[in-house]
């Protein structure tokens, strides 16, 4: 929110930027957690090693994680930068990646989605006001189409080789570490690689074949456990359950069930992506897990797939239970502790915003009961810095909002404030990148409902309203 | 642009009995000249019932419109001036009514831009509130059109 961004020194400015970036990632991932859960439940149930194997339904699993989930992330990312057009562009750009790679493209989607949104936003900004009347529709559609086409090809051509490169890097790194004999160090590569959705590539491609060679002679191998331990994921999700942001707290418990008992590790990946620093906790936990397995000299008889606690116990040879269970537990506890610490450091500030917001909402509610001056006091507390887009909104998004926007734009031009964009929308379609929403006071409640974290200026008169005059003064 | 659209869709009337009536009367030429279907009038009235008089843009001037493109055949605008004002909800006096019918999201923006030029300039607005017949109105609008 704008409220707390004021003039800052270098250090706090840096921290604010890091937080803003973290908030951006969170906002891109969180709205889509439901889709991850839907996919996780399906997968835990119907895959051949699941609870209710069903070959027919299992055909959904692959396409859903390859297409649906990355597209949702790319769409959301694009929308956050460039509104509705950005969303479409984000999805187009993401699709190139998906087809260009043979693993799920989550990180890629989180880069290409916002990039797509940015490209179309820049284009729209550059042609604004230069399109002859009547040609808007054709210019809009073809600009998105042509830029989308280019971006789709770009992301298709770039990702294939990039993924291949990452794969090779990971594989050779792992082999080097195995040669050192210091197995806990493997986590340094395993955990980031897993979150990059290379989890199957490293398990099925490297560790399980290695484990099978050893298990053929010794009856068990530790290699089956180095990347499949469900402990770290459990620790991370528990930490989010207790110390995450409010929204994350609500979803993490459900993810625990699907991850730990269902063995679908992908469920915790988004939580790492939301706050990338937490990878430190994952590495720490996984290392301690491997060290514990080594200490007890235990292993599994085969590769657990999916990596749930039940698969672990089922594949534990007799006499190894204590070691295996300890390894999972130690990993859980270590990850939990480190991640909780990280979350406490990074979340408190963001959470403070949230609480402030709740408070101001409370305040505005009680004010509304008293009089009709709904949110004006909140307006006063917000600094005018960094305002780049003002959205006039009304029911249709065509009439009064257009009139208000046109007039206000003229006023800004008179005051040489041409950097500030003024657009009109219907209330529900105001894009995320709008800093202020101007709306008639009768529609303020509806605007508040759709845009809870935005500053809303209420007016009674579309031209020369005193709140508009105040806003103008503030922007000068 | 605005003057072109308004020609033939202008009315001057002494008084009306209710704000609903004022919207109906103002929209009549648009129905007759096949810009909108009758239903669009109900949409505009319902809109005011639901959200109040937010369509009163500045004192005395209202621009009823609705999100109901289905019942709009082509983009258009009509004008009604009342000699005696009528009360809109929330005790708002209105003398001038522009009905806006927008077919898509962009075509009507030039109309809006012209309208905004009238409303934003105090001198023009004053003259505008005092026009007495179609000819004067068109002349005034043509003078501000670029």
From TrEMBL, chain A:
Gene Ontology biological process terms, A to Z: phosphoenolpyruvate-dependent sugar phosphotransferase system
Functional summary from the UniProt entry: The phosphoenolpyruvate-dependent sugar phosphotransferase system (sugar PTS), a major carbohydrate active transport system, catalyzes the phosphorylation of incoming sugar substrates concomitantly with their translocation across the cell membrane. The enzyme II CmtAB PTS system is involved in D-mannitol transport.
GO molecular function: protein-N(PI)-phosphohistidine-mannitol phosphotransferase system transmembrane transporter activity; protein-phosphocysteine-sugar phosphotransferase activity
Main location: membrane
TM region(s), chain numbering: 24-51, 57-75, 87-113, 133-157, 169-189, 222-243, 255-273, 321-343
Enzyme class: transferase
Reactions catalysed according to its record: D-mannitol(out) + N(pros)-phospho-L-histidyl-[protein] = D-mannitol 1-phosphate(in) + L-histidyl-[protein]
InterPro entries assigned: PTS_EIIB-like_sf, PTS_EIIB_2, PTS_EIIB_2/3, PTS_EIIB_mannitol, PTS_EIIC, PTS_EIIC_2, PTS_IIC_mtl, Sugar_PTS
Domain PTS EIIB type-2 intervals: 388-476
Designated name of the protein: PTS system mannitol-specific EIICB component
The enzyme's E.C. designation: 2.7.1.197
GO cellular component: plasma membrane
Stored PANTHER family: MANNITOL PERMEASE IIC COMPONENT (PTHR30181), PTS SYSTEM MANNITOL-SPECIFIC EIICBA COMPONENT (PTHR30181:SF2)
Entry keyword set: Cell membrane, Membrane, Phosphoprotein, Phosphotransferase system, Sugar transport, Transferase, Transmembrane, Transmembrane helix, Transport
Localization, UniProt: Cell membrane
Topology of this chain in the membrane: Multi-pass membrane protein
Location of the PTS EIIC type-2 domain: 21-352
TrEMBL record, chain B:
Protein's GO biological process: phosphoenolpyruvate-dependent sugar phosphotransferase system
InterPro entries referenced in this protein's UniProt entry, alphabetically: Ascorbate-PTS_EIIA_comp (IPR051351), PTrfase/Anion_transptr (IPR016152), PTS_EIIA_type-2_dom (IPR002178)
GO molecular function: kinase activity
Stretches assigned to coiled coil: none
Domain PTS EIIA type-2: 3-144
KW Amino-acid biosynthesis (keyword) present: no
Keywords of this entry: Cytoplasm, Kinase, Phosphoprotein, Phosphotransferase system, Sugar transport, Transferase, Transport
Compartments, record wording: Cytoplasm
Alphabetical list of SUPFAM superfamilies matching this protein: Phoshotransferase/anion transport protein
Primary localization: cytoplasm
Entry keyword annotation includes Transferase: yes
Gene3D superfamilies: Mannitol-specific EII, Chain A
GO cellular component terms given for this protein: cytoplasm
PANTHER family to which the protein is assigned, alphabetical: ASCORBATE-SPECIFIC PTS SYSTEM EIIA COMPONENT (PTHR36203)
Function: The phosphoenolpyruvate-dependent sugar phosphotransferase system (sugar PTS), a major carbohydrate active transport system, catalyzes the phosphorylation of incoming sugar substrates concomitantly with their translocation across the cell membrane. The enzyme II UlaABC PTS system is involved in ascorbate transport.
Protein name (record): Ascorbate-specific PTS system EIIA component
Lineage, top ranks: Bacteria, Bacillati, Bacillota, Clostridia, Halanaerobiales
């Amino acid at each position: 929110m704008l409220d707390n961004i004021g003039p800052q020194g270098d250090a706090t400015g840096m921290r604010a930027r890091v937080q803003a970036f973290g908030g951006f990632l969170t906002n891109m991932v969180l709205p889509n957690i439901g889709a991850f859960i839907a996919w996780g439940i399906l997968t835990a149930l119907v895959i051949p090693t699941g609870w209710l194997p069903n070959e027919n339904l299992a055909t959904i699993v692959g396409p859903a994680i390859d297409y649906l989930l990355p597209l949702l992330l790319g769409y959301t990312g694009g929308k956050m930068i460039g509104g509705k057009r950005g969303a479409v562009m984000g999805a187009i750009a993401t699709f190139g990646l998906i087809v260009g790679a043979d693993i799920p493209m989550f990180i890629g989607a989180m880069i290409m989605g916002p990039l797509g949104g940015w490209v179309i936003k820049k284009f729209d900004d550059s042609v604004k006001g230069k399109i002859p009347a009547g040609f808007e529709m054709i210019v809009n559609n073809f600009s998105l189409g042509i830029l989308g086409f280019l971006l789709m090809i770009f992301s298709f051509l770039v990702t294939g080789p990039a993924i291949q490169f990452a794969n090779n890097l990971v594989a050779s790194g792992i082999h080097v570490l195995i040669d050192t004999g210091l197995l806990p160090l493997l986590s340094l590569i395993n955990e980031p690689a897993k979150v990059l959705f290379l989890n199957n590539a490293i398990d099925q491609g490297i560790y399980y074949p290695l484990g099978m060679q050893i298990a053929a002679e010794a009856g068990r191998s530790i290699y089956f456990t180095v990347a499949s331990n469900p402990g770290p994921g459990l620790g991370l999700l528990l930490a989010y359950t207790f110390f995450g942001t409010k929204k994350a707290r609500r979803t993490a418990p459900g993810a625990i069930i699907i991850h730990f008992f269902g063995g679908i590790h992908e469920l915790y990946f988004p939580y790492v992506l939301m706050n990338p620093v937490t990878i430190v906790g994952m590495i720490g936990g996984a290392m301690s897990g491997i060290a514990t397995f080594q200490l007890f000299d235990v292993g599994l008889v085969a590769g657990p797939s999916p990596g749930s606690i039940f698969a672990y116990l089922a594949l534990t040879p007799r006499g190894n239970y204590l070691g295996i269970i300890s390894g999972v537990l130690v990993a859980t506890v270590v990850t939990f502790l480190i991640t909780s610490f990280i979350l406490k450091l990074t979340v408190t500030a963001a959470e403070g915003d949230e609480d402030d917001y709740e408070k101001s909402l409370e305040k505005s509610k009680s004010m509304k009961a008293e009089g009709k001056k709904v949110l004006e006091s909140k307006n006063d507390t917000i600094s005018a810095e960094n305002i780049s887009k003002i959205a006039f909104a009304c029911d249709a998004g065509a009439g009064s909002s257009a009139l208000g926007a046109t007039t206000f734009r003229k006023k800004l031009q008179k005051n040489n404030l041409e950097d500030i964009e003024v657009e009109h929308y219907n209330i529900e379609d105001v894009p995320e990148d709008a800093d202020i929403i101007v709306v008639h006071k009768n529609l303020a409640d509806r605007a508040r409902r759709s845009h809870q974290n935005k500053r809303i200026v209420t007016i009674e008169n579309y031209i020369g309203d005193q709140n508009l005059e105040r806003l103008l003064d503030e922007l000068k | 642009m605005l003057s072109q659209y308004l020609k033939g869709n202008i009315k001057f009337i002494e008084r009306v009995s209710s704000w609903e009536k004022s919207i109906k009367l103002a929209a009549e030429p648009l129905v007759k000249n096949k810009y909108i279907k009758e239903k669009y009038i109900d949409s505009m009235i319902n809109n005011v019932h639901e959200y109040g008089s937010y369509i009163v843009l500045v004192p005395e001037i209202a621009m009823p419109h609705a999100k109901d493109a289905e019942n709009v055949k082509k983009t258009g605008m009509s004008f009604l001036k009342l000699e005696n004002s009528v009360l809109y909800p929330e005790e708002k006096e209105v003398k001038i009514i522009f009905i806006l019918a927008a077919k898509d999201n962009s075509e009507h923006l030039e109309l809006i831009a012209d309208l905004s030029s009238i409303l934003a300039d105090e001198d023009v607005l004053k003259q505008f509130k005092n026009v007495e017949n179609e000819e004067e109105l068109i002349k005034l609008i043509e003078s501000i059109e670029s």
